[in-house]
C-alpha cells in the first residue's frame, strides 16, 4: 500500500502522483472547498445549503460546517439546510431520513418543504403528457423552490452539491450543442440580484471529483442516502481528449468546436444587453425571455 506523500502514513487516495492519508485527504478536500469560498467571497453570509440527502450535498454541509469552525467570528457564515420532499416513494423517504440525521449531526437548522403540499400535484402528474424528461422538469421545480425559499427568508447564497464531474459534463454538453450561455457563464458562483428576486448560487464542490466526494463522505461517516432516484439518468465523466475521436462518430464535435470562437466573439459583443431577465406575470420571480416562468407554466396554468 502506498504511503502518504506528506506524512508517510497509510495512503487512502492517490492523484497526480501524490498520495494522501485520511488526515491529508481531508485537508486536500477542504482546501478545494475553501478556494470556492474565496472566489465567491462567501464569508459572513447567510447560506442555504440545498441538501438532497445524497453524498454530494451532504458533503457540502459537512465541509462548510468544518470550515466555519476555523473562521474568525466576523467571517463565519450562517448555515441552514433546505430539503424538498419530492414524494418519490421510498427514495424520498430515505433522503428525508438522511437529511434529518445530517441536521442533527451538524447541529444545523433544517427546513423541509413538500412538493405535493406546494403544488397539490405529484411530480408524475406534473410531468404527464410533457415532452421533457421527468428529471429535467424536477430540476426546474427544484431550482425555483430553492430560489423562492432563499429569497423570502433573506439568504445571500444557495449552496448546491454539483461536483466537477457534473460540471464537466454540462460544459461538454454545452460544447456539443453550441450552448454559448452555458459555456461562458461563471459556473462556480453567481451573485444575488435582489431587485430581480434572484438569490446567489455557489457550488463548493466545483473543483472536486465525484470519487473524491464519495471518499470524503465515507471516511467522515457523513450520513447520506445510497438510493438512486428511479428517474435519474446515470451521469458519466467526460474525458475529452481520449474520446473525441470516438465521439466524432456519434456527434459532430469537431465542427461544434471550430464554430465556437466565432459564436463566442459575437456573444461577447451582445453582452452589454445584460441577461434577459423578466418578471413572471404570475409570481413575479425571474424568468428568462418568457412572460410566465417555467414553474408557473408547469404548475399553475392548466393545459
Ligand atoms: P441534481 O439536479 O439532482 O443533480 O441535484 C443538484 C443539487 O441540487 C444537489 O447537489 C443538491 O444540492 C440540490 N438538490 C437536489 N435535490 C434536492 C432536494 N430534493 N432537496 C434539496 N436540494 C436538492
Ligand atoms: Fe428529481 Fe429524480 S430527483 S426526478
Ligand atoms: Zn498524511
Ligand atoms: Zn412564475
Give an account of the 3D structure.
With 303 residues, this protein is an alpha/beta fold. The chain has one domain (25-238): HUPs (Rossmann fold), CATH 3.40.50. Helix content is 47%, strand content 13%. Strands 5-4-3-6-8-7 form a six-stranded mixed beta sheet, sandwiched between helices. It is globular and about 60 Å long. Residues 4, 6-7, 9, 21, 23-24 line the site of one zinc ion (ZN).
The CATH class label is: Alpha Beta
Q: How far apart are the first and last residues' alpha carbons, in Å?
A: 62 Å
**What percentage of residues falls in helices of 4 or more residues?**
40-55%
Bound ligand species: adenosine monophosphate, FE2/S2 (inorganic) cluster, zinc ion
The stretches of 5 or more residues where confidence is low (pLDDT under 50) are: 234-241
Number of helical regions:
12
- Rounded mean pLDDT is 87
The CATH superfamily is identified as HUPs
At CATH level 2, the architecture is 3-Layer(aba) Sandwich
How many domains?
A: 1
Give the biggest beta sheet: 6 strands, mixed
Here the CATH topology equals Rossmann fold
Order of helices and strands: EEHEHEHEHHHEHHEEHHHEEH
Percent of residues in beta strands: 5-15%
Rg calc: 20 Å
Question: What class, by secondary structure content?
Answer: alpha/beta
DSSP strand tally: 10
The largest sheet has its strands arranged as: 5-4-3-6-8-7
Shape: globular
Amino acid at each position: 500500500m502506498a504511503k502518504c506523500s506528506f506524512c508517510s502514513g497509510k495512503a487512502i487516495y492517490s492523484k497526480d502522483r501524490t498520495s494522501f492519508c485520511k488526515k491529508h485527504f481531508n485537508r486536500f478536500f477542504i482546501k478545494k472547498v475553501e478556494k470556492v469560498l474565496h472566489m465567491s467571497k462567501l464569508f459572513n453570509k447567510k447560506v442555504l445549503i440545498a441538501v438532497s440527502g445524497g453524498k454530494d450535498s451532504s458533503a457540502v454541509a459537512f465541509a462548510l460546517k468544518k470550515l466555519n469552525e476555523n473562521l474568525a467570528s466576523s467571517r463565519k457564515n450562517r448555515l441552514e439546510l433546505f430539503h424538498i420532499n419530492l414524494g418519490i416513494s421510498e427514495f424520498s423517504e430515505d433522503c428525508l431520513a438522511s437529511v434529518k440525521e445530517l441536521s442533527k449531526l451538524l447541529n444545523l437548522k433544517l427546513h423541509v418543504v413538500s412538493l405535493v403540499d406546494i403544488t397539490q400535484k405529484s411530480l408524475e402528474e406534473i410531468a404527464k403528457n410533457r415532452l421533457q424528461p421527468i428529471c429535467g422538469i424536477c430540476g426546474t421545480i427544484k431550482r425555483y423552490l430553492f430560489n423562492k425559499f432563499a429569497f423570502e427568508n433573506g439568504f445571500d447564497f444557495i449552496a448546491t452539491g454539483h461536483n466537477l464531474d457534473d460540471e464537466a459534463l454540462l460544459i461538454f454538453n454545452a460544447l456539443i450543442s453550441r450552448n454559448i450561455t452555458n459555456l461562458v457563464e461563471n459556473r462556480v458562483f453567481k451573485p444575488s440580484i435582489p431587485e430581480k428576486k434572484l438569490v446567489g448560487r455557489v457550488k463548493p464542490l466545483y473543483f472536486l471529483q465525484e470519487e473524491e466526494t464519495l471518499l470524503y463522505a465515507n471516511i467522515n461517516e457523513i450520513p447520506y442516502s445510497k438510493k438512486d432516484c428511479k428517474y435519474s439518468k446515470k451521469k458519466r465523466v467526460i474525458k475529452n481528449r481520449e474520446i473525441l475521436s470516438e465521439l466524432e462518430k456519434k456527434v459532430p464535435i469537431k465542427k461544434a468546436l471550430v464554430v465556437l470562437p466565432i459564436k463566442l466573439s459575437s456573444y461577447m459583443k451582445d453582452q452589454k444587453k445584460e441577461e434577459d431577465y423578466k418578471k413572471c406575470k404570475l409570481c413575479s420571480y425571474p424568468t428568462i425571455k418568457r412572460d410566465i416562468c417555467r414553474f408557473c407554466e408547469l404548475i399553475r396554468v392548466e393545459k
